[in-house]
């Protein structure tokens, strides 16, 4: 198939999923055309079946900002006509499914539209009621809707009602050839960050308020009083200044390392002892899955799709949002008992590999693609049959 993959290029789970899915589809012989405002940050390895089409910006006095939704729609039509796309796969209902819908209206032969929900699609409506009708339209005009977790699918149905075609749950995934525990002696990087053999805690996110990165710092502060450790903070975003102030206020500047945005995080995860994800909301928590695949137990919030990813008491611990004390105690429990830690680490690797393999996800998406294309072809043949 020739697939038009519409996604955000920025640092975040949806872009990672779209890109890694593209690589996996390319390996299976499909031709994948990424359409976005800039090259997705994980789209860095050459593959003969993967292509990138940049949405051009325009400068026109009438517009305060470039009308990206319209420009994206035009680019989708351009790519579809030039390469002969079989379908459009939009990651996020707003704005990508709306742009795809506009594009389809301009085509002489409409293409099927698959929309994957990643979370903000639904939570955005909670923050901005103005997006409700648009999101509902995006769901209604999609030929198939997929969700990265059961929790997100249920939340979508509660907010917008049950879609006629239902919602297919296809969880996010990992490639065990990329994400795996680092065996043997600690690497050079671990010796740099923890020269005295301290334990290493880590957090990776886009540093938005919902990620509760200040909680990460406070959890670390409590753990560090009992067990010598270091904290690695990976990413950047609007909460960065607030987090830096919290580090200074607690006198932890010598023990917390800000690594900024990183294109690849596997080398970081392979030297970490415990991963922290105390988010206020997570539709799935891809980085938690990546951590577990590297043998790192996760301490996270019991919210959204995280209970589907982290097995409480087996691959990590879950606590209520904002329960800094409970999460601190969970980290201390793991770091104080080497036999418990080893069991959690091994169970995390097994759970990640067996439950979230890339092959299962690709087969799930392929099945959706095949079904929407068959249905689309059947619709297009109907008028001729009636002549």
Description:
With 387 residues, the protein is an alpha/beta fold. It folds into two domains: 2-173 and 357-386, Glycogen Phosphorylase B (Rossmann fold), CATH 3.40.50.2000; 188-355, Rossmann fold (3-Layer(aba) Sandwich), CATH 3.40.50.2000. It is built from 15 helices and 13 strands. It has helices spanning 13-27, 68-83, 93-105, 120-127, 132-141, 150-160, 188-193, 213-224, 240-249, 266-269, 286-293, 306-309, 324-336, 338-355, 358-386, and strands at residues 2-6, 31-36, 50-54, 87-91, 113-117, 144-147, 167-169, 199-205, 229-235, 256-260, 274-277, 298-301, 316-319. It has a seven-stranded parallel beta sheet with strand order 3-2-1-4-5-6-7, with helices on both faces. Strands 10-9-8-11-12-13 form a six-stranded parallel beta sheet, sandwiched between helices. Helix 11 (286-293) links the parallel strand 11 (274-277) and strand 12. The two termini are 30 Å apart. The mean pLDDT is 91.
């Amino acid at each position: 198939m020739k697939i038009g993959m519409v996604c955000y290029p920025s640092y975040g789970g949806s872009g990672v999923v779209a890109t890694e899915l593209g690589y996996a589809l390319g390996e299976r012989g499909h031709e994948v055309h990424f359409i976005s405002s800039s090259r997705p940050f994980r789209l860095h390895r050459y593959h003969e079946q993967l292509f990138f089409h940049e949405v051009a910006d325009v400068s026109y006095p009438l517009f305060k900002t470039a009308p990206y939704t319209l420009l994206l729609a035009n680019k989708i039509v351009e790519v579809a006509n030039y390469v002969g796309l079989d379908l459009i796969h939009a990651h996020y209902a707003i704005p990508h499914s709306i742009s795809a819908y506009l594009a389809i209206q301009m085509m002489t032969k409409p293409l099927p539209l698959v929309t994957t929900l990643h979370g903000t699609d639904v939570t955005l409506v909670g923050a901005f009621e103005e997006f409700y009708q648009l999101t509902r339209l995006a769901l209604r005009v999609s030929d198939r809707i997929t969700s990265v977790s059961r929790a997100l699918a249920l939340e979508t149905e509660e907010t917008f009602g049950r879609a006629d075609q239902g919602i297919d749950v296809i969880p996010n995934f990992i490639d065990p050839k990329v994400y795996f525990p680092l065996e043997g002696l600690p690497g050079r990087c671990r010796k740099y960050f923890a020269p005295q053999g301290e334990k290493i805690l880590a957090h990776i996110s886009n540093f938005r308020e919902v990620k509760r990165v200040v909680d990460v710092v406070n959890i670390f502060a409590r753990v560090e009083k009992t067990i010598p450790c270091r904290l690695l903070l990976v990413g950047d975003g609007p909460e960065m200044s607030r987090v830096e102030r919290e580090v200074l206020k607690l006198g932890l500047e010598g023990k917390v390392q800000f690594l900024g945005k990183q294109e690849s995080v596997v080398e970081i995860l392979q030297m970490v002892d415990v991963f922290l994800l105390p988010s206020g909301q997570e539709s799935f928590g891809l980085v938690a899955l990546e951590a577990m695949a590297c043998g790192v137990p996760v301490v996270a919030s019991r919210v959204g799709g995280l209970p589907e990813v982290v097995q409480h008491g087996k691959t990590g611990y879950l606590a209520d949002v904002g329960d800094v004390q409970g999460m601190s105690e969970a980290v201390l429990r793991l770091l104080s008992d080497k036999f418990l830690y080893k069991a959690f680490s091994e169970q995390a690797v097994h759970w990640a590999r067996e439950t979230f393999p890339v092959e299962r996800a690709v087969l799930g998406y392929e099945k959706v693609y095949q079904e929407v294309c068959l249905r689309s072809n059947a619709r297009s043949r109907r008028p001729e049959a009636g002549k």
